[in-house]
Amino acid sequence: MSNTINIVSNGELRLEYYSFGIGDEIVICLHGHGRNATDFEFIATENKRVISIHLFHHGNSYFPIERIEQKPLLTIEIIQLLQIILTKEKIDQFHLFAFSQGGRFSLCLIPFFAEKIKTITLISPDGMNNNSFYNWSSRRRWARSIFRYFEKNPTRLLFYNQIALKTKLIRPKVATFVNEFSSNQKSFIRASRTWQTFRYLKPDCQAIKSTLNKYPIPFLIIMGRYDQVIRPKQAYKFARVIGKEENVLEIPNGHNFFKSSSINKFIHFLPFMEQSLSLDQIIRGNEQHP
């Protein structure tokens, strides 16, 4: 199986991406926070090529630390970098597949690449609510200052995390999620920097709705029924706003979708996979099992 690593640049920004498989059918993938571009290697075949992009602060993709506070990442910069990749790889049409934080990037890109996108599949995507506390606070200087303070010694956050859990300010699974990143300084710094760097990546729900009304792109959101990090109700609310409420599929899973037992639960729903269910079949299944 063909496997190459490439880097594209636009000014001071750099994106690393992996290419798996061969063939004319192209799937562009964007991973979740703390994950890796190799997560998507399982979908590559002799007839399908996977372009899996490392988000900034992951792999060898690069965003200047000195820009984070004063000049965070903008959607136009992601558009430009993706266009460079499409030109370099001679890609005219592609499937878009993303997980969690990669979903935020994908939602921002949809209105600008609709003519090139064949299908859209988002797994537990971030970015469905620009006004959630998580996103709202990232745009507040005081909140960013607090996170930069904890970057020096993130274990101090564990104490406050336990207080928030005991007072029910956060859910148990979210507390576990915070503990996971707070117990390791490198992981916490990456979480803090991505949270701050991506704060202006705000998907435009109305633009997405208009785009999907204009272009008949098969669109599917797959959610974990037991996911407490990004919960299914967020997906249903977002899907109603963009007029795609029937296009949300729940599977019996938490937020970790990339262990082998979880992959087997959703691989047959991916529209670009051989012998996958059609979107109509999925929607009919949702109607029969609400």
Please provide the count of β strands: 8
Q: In angstroms, what is the radius of gyration?
A: 19 Å
Trace the largest sheet across and list its strands. Answer: 1-2-4-3-5-6-7-8
Mean pLDDT: 91
Instruction: Specify the structural class.
Output: alpha/beta
- The first-level CATH class of the largest domain is given as Alpha Beta
Total tally of structural domains: 2
Order of helices and strands: EEEEHEHEHHHHHHEHEHH
Given the structure, what is the number of helices? 11
Largest sheet: 8 strands, mixed
Q: Bin the strand percentage.
A: 15-25%
- For the terminal residues, how far apart are their CA atoms? 40 Å
Low-confidence sequence ranges: none
CATH superfamily of the largest domain: Alpha/Beta hydrolase fold, catalytic domain
Secondary structure: helix percent: 40-55%
CATH architecture title of the largest domain:
3-Layer(aba) Sandwich
Please describe what this structure looks like:
This protein has eleven helices and eight strands. The chain is an alpha/beta fold. The chain folds into two domains: 3-130 and 201-288, Rossmann fold, CATH 3.40.50.1820; 140-197. The chain has an eight-stranded mixed sheet with strand order 1-2-4-3-5-6-7-8, with helices on both faces. Strand 1 (3-10) and strand 2 form a beta hairpin. It is globular. The model has no long low-confidence stretch (mean pLDDT 91).
